[in-house]
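# nightly structure sweep
# worker-07 picked up a monomer target from the shared queue
# config: single-sequence mode, recycle default, output format = structure tokens
# input follows
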Amino acid sequence: MTYTLHIANKRYSSWSMRPWVLFKALDIPFEEKLHFLQEDLAEQRRDYLTFSPSAKVPTLVDNSNTTLVHDSLAIAEYLAEDFPAVWPSDKLARAFARCAAAEMHSGFPAIRNECSMNVALRIELGTPSEALQRDINRLTELFNEGISKFGGPWIAGKEFSAADAFYAPIASRCKTYGIQLAGPAGEYIDRLYEHPAVQAWVEEGIVEAGILARYEADCIQGRKVLKNLGEQQILDFLGL
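# output follows
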């Protein structure tokens, strides 16, 4: 295949999820290379340096010309050179979609820190912190604006784009932590979560073997786990 996409655990890796979902949603053939995250960070870095100069995922290799692209947003832009459907065809919608993807790429620190991605768990969030509530409010505002301006069903119009792929991990987080968005934003996040490409990632992540104690603890943060969709995988991990 022309493209090889290096990713980390589907259970945890929001950064990997974005380009993977984009490839799947646009039906672009690619080969997946899964590299489990490791408890030993030094060993993980040595492993990841064998395919990524930043020792991070995702990393895309274009096998047709050996080009290596090691950033999720850069991967989207690289694909757009050959697959224009990565972004909306309308100029205004395309600008909005690029802004939305860039905002996700660099922003929303509270939801990243307080609601780490774990596709298999359902966690009782409790009362959001002020910072987390600001992120939730901004997500609601952004999604409502996109749907209102461009008519939906996706964030910038009728066609699924990179902007939607970039918010796929947010859809997963909303399900994990029971975060409800108001108005069309809530309907959008439900629609995004049910997209076949997003569901394929989630379903594979639930049954994935590479469970790490530190990532589980970072997701739970002392909160109540309401449900574990991958219960057997946890039992296997604990040797029970």
